[in-house]
Please model this.
Amino acid sequence: MIFVAGSANLDFVVRAPHIPAPGETVLGSDFKTFAGGKGANQAIAACRAGGVAVGMLLALGRDSFAEPVEASLNNAGVALQVVRVDDLPTGTAFICVSDDAENAITVAPGANLALRPEHLPDLQGIQYLLLQLETPLQTVAAYAAAARKSGVKVMLNAAPAQALPPSLLARVDVLVVNQAELATVSHCAGTVAQCLQNLPDVRCIVVTLGEKGCCARSDGQIILQTAFAIKPVDTTGAGDTFCGVLAASLAQQLPMPQAMARASAAAALACTRAGAQSSIPTKADVDSFLAEQPTEVAAIKPDNAELAAYAGFKQPTSKSNT
Ligand code: RIB
Model:
């Protein structure tokens, strides 16, 4: 079983020709609300990946925004433990998606800030505890410590980026970051390879690199996964899809390269649809997407030299699996 302890938001999304610069007003087009929040998105991604039960601890306000957020998680089959918060509204996110599929997100965390260390239930029977940084850092650190004590593996998606205490990093089994988050966590402005050197004690770090793909240092091995070619519509939730599917795949004992390949395929598919949870593919979607890939992409092939060079790895040491 995977257990997510984290955020849930209602996303207010507007499409616009481009993301406004500071001080600029842009005339947008479509406006929609979607269920979102990094924690909830990751829980649904893990659930849709199939083969593993998923539970989630979340905090919601007593307002009308809570209803669609809770309904989306229930409909996906996530077993919920909800902390009801009287004095804070349900978390919200204000998202502008540009016509070239990029986004800018501002989160008003609201009730997510009310998750406290004592809310974590007993972790018996759980394989991975999946955490993000949209809830208080002190709570995240306490949950990681509790998981470590119970022999539960911790996957931390360090998003939104913030510097992390070494004591928290020491309790993380799998750290998932994008390149900007890696720079913040490792206090490094260099290449991915250089930044990873600043985090020698984290056993496994997976770095998502957008349209370039992703890479990992796992038990000292470098793994490279090129991106799948897609036409992006909205990249919101792609990183969360990656995390949820990665956790579900690892919980089912898939080796890291295969788990990264499935997570990448799911994240690519998520970019072809609008919204966060609405864009997350099912296991069947991912299976048929992978089956449609040209043989030379689907088969294990030599390390991708371009990706290795981009990330600053001079001598890749393992096989990629695209
Ligand atoms: O990662 C995407 C998510 O970030 C959105 O759903 C939004 O709610 C913010 O948490």
Observations:
- The two ends are 27 Å apart (CA to CA).
- The pocket of alpha-D-ribofuranose is lined by residues 7, 9, 11, 36-38, 41, 93, 105, 107, 134, 236-237, 239-240, 276 (CB under 6 Å).
